[in-house]
Structures are given as structure tokens and as C-alpha cells.
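sanity check this record:
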Amino acid sequence: MLLIIVSILSFLPCVMCKHNKCFTTNHLLRIPHEFYQPGDFIIGGLASHIFGSFAKEDFREILITHQVRTFFIMPKNYQHILALVFAVKEINENPTILPNITLGFHIYDSYTNKRMTYRAILDLISTHPRYVPNYRCRIEKNLMAVIGGLDFGTSLYIATILGVYKIPQLSYGSFAPQNTDQSRHTPFYRMVPSDDHQYTGIVELLVHFSWTWVGLFAANNESGEKCMQTLQPLLSRKHICLAFLERTPQTSYEHNNIHLLYLQVNQVIVKSKAGVVISCGNSASILALQTMLAQWERENVAGTPMRKVWILTAQLDFIGTTYPTRWDMQVFQGSISFTVHSDEVQRFRAFLQFLNPFEENGDDFLKQFWTLVFHCLFPNSNMEEKPSGTCTGEEKLEELPSSDFEMSMTGHSYSVYNAVYAMAHALHNTLLHRSKQRAAMEGEMQELPKLQAWQLHPFLRSVSFNNSAGEKVSFGENRELETGFDITNLVTFPNNSYVRIKVGRIDLEAPPGKQFSIHEDQMVWHKSFLQVPPRSVCCPSCPPGSRKKKKEGEKFCCYDCAPCPQGRIASQKDMNDCIGCSENHFPNKDQTQCIPKTISFLTFGEPLGMCISFLSLLFFLLTLLVLVIFAKHQDTPLVRANNRDLTYTLLMSLLLCFLCPFIFLSQPERVSCLLRQMAFGVVFTVTVSCVLAKTVTVVLAFVATKPGSRMRKWVGKTLASAIVLTCTIIQAGICTVWLGTSPPFPHFDKYYVTGEIILECNEGSAALFYCVLGYMGFLAIVSFVVAFLARKLPDSFNEAKFITFSMLLFCSVWISFVPVYLSTKGKHMVAVEIFSILASSAGLMGSIFAPKCYIIMLRPDLNIREQLMRN
């Protein structure tokens, strides 16, 4: 026989029956109940609170007469028993498993009480009414295994006795204890996975919905303690804070205690900003939570919605209660439950529909269950408080609210179902092995010893099969199923029924990183939420472009939002720190993303470049026109009197000066950077040296006309050419040294202007660059001084006044150029240099050649030798 120990939190308010004998509430309701079915082998089961009651006083004796006030009815876990009965029925009807062998079972109620648990176990392993171990005086029970219990404590009590006899124990709801060593040495098989995976799944769920401010309600027992100690470090690693951590008593239902529980809920849960509350404990902990919420509903006169998402662990389950009347399930609308993985088992619903309390099948629990859930009375019932109506057997289980009974097989019932099949397959394999041994011993006068329960262990550890739902069942290394957990969403209805919708899974067989899955689009949330999915954070999210700033004295989930510093961004919400952009990018206006910088340099296409190009071309054409005029009138006295060759050289250099800006307007490259300053320096040196030569020639011409002057021999083209050539060679030497030591090169300036990469020509050696400018300035100053000294010479014959003015303009432009050039960057710096080139060149051309062109073109009567000589 196989014994199943099933810890079921179900209570009977007014009657408990055994073998058709009923006791009123004047008797203690903890009399052991038995559900017996005979068979060749027996499955033993110990069910905690299949039916029972929590009373006002805690009785410490097994049999005692006392007035009991019943508070709760909890018949729902009766489905665990029916799952075992259904599995045994299927196995007995299946010719491929245990042929010619009938399985039977004994089921006892332990009432989650140590004494009752031990008494039931002794009853299973003995046959004498006095429960004498190892004493059998009637037909032996072929007890092969025990299934139970729902809580780890109950399972451990069972194991202390069964371990002595080495009887296999399959625990269908016992999660690993807090002590890992204790878990490793527990002598039973778990039909559920380790709840460490469940806690990891809870954290993954919080991370998925970005819930960082949550509350934790834990039962005041070993299960609640483990939940707290396991969850807290996991939450901390994922940057999730606990808004509150409360311990709730497991069973405390006196009026004063209930009021204190209400105050605890109202002061802690309702007033907390946490929108998510995790509740964990054992199978009975849901009662404390239901009691608190029911009391809160009654005293919530203002009708304030709670607006909380409840996350419940697999150890908890909703149980029908009647204290003091049925309470509203709507507060749990949209809650999320982690349940032991289950699948649809064929024919189980039909099996439930054919249950009839009037059939004699040895099930003493069925009539009590029927009385509780349908509030009816069977004939000949001895009850002080008569329920309304008579039980007919026509009542339908599917009409019951889900809080009382569920037609779909729950996770724990699914574990019971698999446990029965695991034991049956192990027994089947054991018998096959023995038959092979018997065949090998054929012909010998030796019989195999009687099959003992301890012989199932090696076959049970290696059992592997597919159940009727098509899922593989086998034990892992730690003698526990690696089935995982289902994530269910609770949808409630006004009649206090509900539907569990599977919205996710923790699949332990999936690859790493894909074990957690959630289908957010299938979830139903409470109607009071202002947004879905609801938020649960201590502070509003910091928008992109800002960072979290810790509040002093607060948890790290509570913070202020501070804008990102200049040059840094925050591309996501709730960033701990802002990040900088790469060299080629810069923050946008909102500091939410980095955008590529644009490469900036002065080009022909932009308005400034077009304007410069137009002026350069205009002055170039005007200079070319002057050159043409002078070439056409080269034999006139005015042109010949001003050193015609020197004039042509000056005009040609001015033409090149007006073409220089086009080199500056091209993209900075190695060649263009080399040509810019070198061409500008040499060409302008030729221009200034020509002006200097003209000035010196004018002065020497007047000095040489004096009688006895020795300067006569210096007057002529040779001196002018020597001045121009010497000055140019010196400037060319400076440029050569510049090119040979530290030449200009293209340079990307990524930091001076936000949003731009300035492509410019780095001068290489700033000292040599200013040497070139300084040398030109020196020549200009010399020309200015000489021209200033010759300004009083006759106007009609010399051009000293015009040269003086042109050099004054030239020096003013380039003296102003230096500070402006140093204070600008990028294309504006280039534009300043181009403007200085154009302004100084235009000043020279206008000051020196405009008066001559006026005389040549408009006053030819003044362009005669007599007129010049007379003046």
C-alpha cells in the first residue's frame, strides 16, 4: 500500500466524521480521519488539515472535550486528495503499468500538528490499534511509499520516522529548507523544484516591469524567514529597494489581534508608496493575509482603493474562508502568483464531475466536503447547527467559486499526480528487475525474499517517464524535479470565483538567459490603477538628459533628478551618471543623445565664401584693368616718369595678392596649407618691396637733381630692381626655414566650437609665421617713413603723398589684424586674414594707381611733358 501525506489547509466548522460516526463541536475536531482503499501495495498519505478548524483556543491534547468557536472553513485543498485518487484509479486501469497488481492507499489528516503527524505515521507502519511499531497481528499493509507533506515541517516530521525504515517519501509541496546541509540530508524526494529559482524569478519579474520600490510581507515562520534572507540580497543586486519589511503572524484570529493586523495593513501597506507587495510564507500564511485584507475592507469606510499588485509565492494558495462572512476577492484582482508548474491532465475534470457523496467508496472526507461547500445537510446527520437545505448529490462542483474549489488541477495537485506515477513506475521497474532475477534462478530451490519498501530507492532515483500531459518526469541530482514554475495572473469575478491565466514561465530546462519569460500583453490589472502596467518607484523617473542624485539619509532608490553637466548626456531614464560623447560627437540641446559633429571650414559655397570670392575677383579685374590701361599708355610721360617696369611688377604682384584668397577658401590639405602662408608672404613682400623701391626712387630722383650730388649714379632701374630682389630673397629665406623646420599642416580642432570639428591649417611654428608678418611690417614701416619724409616734394612729379597714405592704410590693417586673428578660430580666423589681404591690397592699388588712372583716362591734357616739367 502507498501512503500519501497531504498537507491540506481545509477546515470543518461544525462536524467531523470518522466511519460514519459524527462528533459535535463539543468534541475536539482533531480526531484523525482516514480514507482507505485496499490493494496489493499501499500508498500512504498524510494530509494536513483536509478538514479542520482554527479555534479560539489552541488545544494541546489529542482527545479532550471543550467548547470550540470555529473561525475558518478551508475545504479547497481537498483537490490534492482527489488528484491522488484519480492517479491511482488511472494506474489500476492501465494494463501497461503494474499489470495484475492493484494499488491501494491510506490517507490521514495531520492537522499540521506534530503529535497527529507522528500518530498517523505510526498507524501507517503498524497494524495494531495501539500503534505498536513493528507489531503486526493481521493482514500486513504492503506500504511501499509515502506522499507528503505540503509544508517542509510536516515532511520533516514524517521523515524522522520513515527514515528509520527507509520507506521512500515523496514530498509534493515541500520546498528546500533554509539550511542547505539540512536540505541535502533530508531523506525524501521533492516533486517540486528548489524555491531559489522562484525567488530569482520574482526579481526578474520586478526588473521586467521596472518595479524598484516594493514591500515584503513574510510569515513569522521558517518559510518566511528564508524568503526574507534570500530575497533581500537578490533585490539589492538588481538595485531594488524594500519600502517596508513586515512579519505577519501565521495564525492569530482573536478580535484584538485582528484589529492590530488591520492597523498594520493600513499604516504600512496602504500608506506606502510601494505599488507592489511580495507575500511569502507557507501554505497557511494566506490566511493571515486574507484576514488582514478582509478587516481592512470592512473598516475602509472611505472606499480608498488599495492599488497594490500582490506577488505571491508558490507556497501560498487562495483558500475559501467563512470568517465572519465570505470576503471579497477583488482586492487580489491582477495579482501575480508563482505556482508549481502544471499542465492539463486529461479526464481529471470528468473525474471530478462524476463524484457522488452518496456512493460508498470509503471516502469519509467527501460528505464533509459536500456539506461545507454546498451548505447542505445529509440525512441522519447529527449536527447542532443545521445548514439550510438537504444534500441531493446533484450539486455541481463547477458551480462553486474558485476560492472554494478549482476544477483545473492546481500545481500542488499536479505534483501529487506525478508523485503517484513516479512511485508506480519505480515499483513497476523493481518488479521487472525481480522477475529477471527469478528467471535467472530458475531450476534452483531458492525463493527471492519479500519485496521491501527500501528496495524502491535506486529505481525511484532513476525513474523517468512521460505523464499523460506529455511532460517528462525525472529526478535531478538533488532528488527534486527540475520542472520550474508557472507565472499566473489572477482574474477575479463578482461571485468570488477567479481564473488563473498563465502569463509566464520559469523554465529550468531553457538555455541560460531565456529561463524567464513573461507575456505582458496577456495580463489583466486591477481597475483602480491609473496606468498599466502600474508603477512602483520611490521617486518619479529622471527623464533622459538628467541623472539621479542621491538623497541624504534615504535608500538608494529614493533620489532627486539633476541636469547633466555641460558636454555630457543621459540617453535613458534613471541613469546614475551622465556620460560624455566621443571626440567626433557632441550632445544635442536636450542632452539626451550624441550627434555627429559637422566639419567646418571656409568654402566657396557659403555666403561668406561667396562674398570673399566676389570681392577678390572684382579687385583682380580692376587691377587687371589698370594694368591694361598702363600698358596701353606706357609711352605717356606719366607712366614713364614713375618707373614703368617697377609699376608693372607692382601691378602683377597685386594681381597675385587678389588671387591668394582662393587658396584660403579651399579645403585645408597638406599642399594648400603649405601654399597659403608661403604664397601670401612672398607675394606681399614683392608688393611692399616694390612700393619701397618706388619711394626710394622718388627721394633719390630729387636729391640727384641738385648740383654736385653724388646720388646721380644710383638713380635708375638697377637700384629699384636690387631693392625688390633683395627684400624678396630675405622673405623667401624665412619661408624656406619655416618649411624645413615646422611647416603648416591640416588640423582638426574638436573642442573649440560645440557641435563642430574645425578643419584648419595649423601654422606649425607660430614664431616663424610672425617673423614673416613682422618682416612685411618692417618693409611697410620703412616705406611709410621714407614716403612721409618726401611728402613735400612737388606733387606733379612724384607720388610720395599717395605712397604715404597707402602705407598708413597698409600698416593700420595689419596692426589690427594681429589681435583680431589671435581672438578668432576656424573659418572666422581665415576670413580675418583674407579681409586683411584684400583691404591692404585694395588700399595700395587705390591710393597709388587711382590718381594716375584719373589723369590718364579723364585728364589727358595733364599727361604731357611740359605740364609735368612746369610743375
Residues 697 and 715 are 7 Å apart (CA to CA). Residues 1-32, 52-73, 251-256, 321-325 have pLDDT under 50 and may be disordered. The radius of gyration is 52 Å.
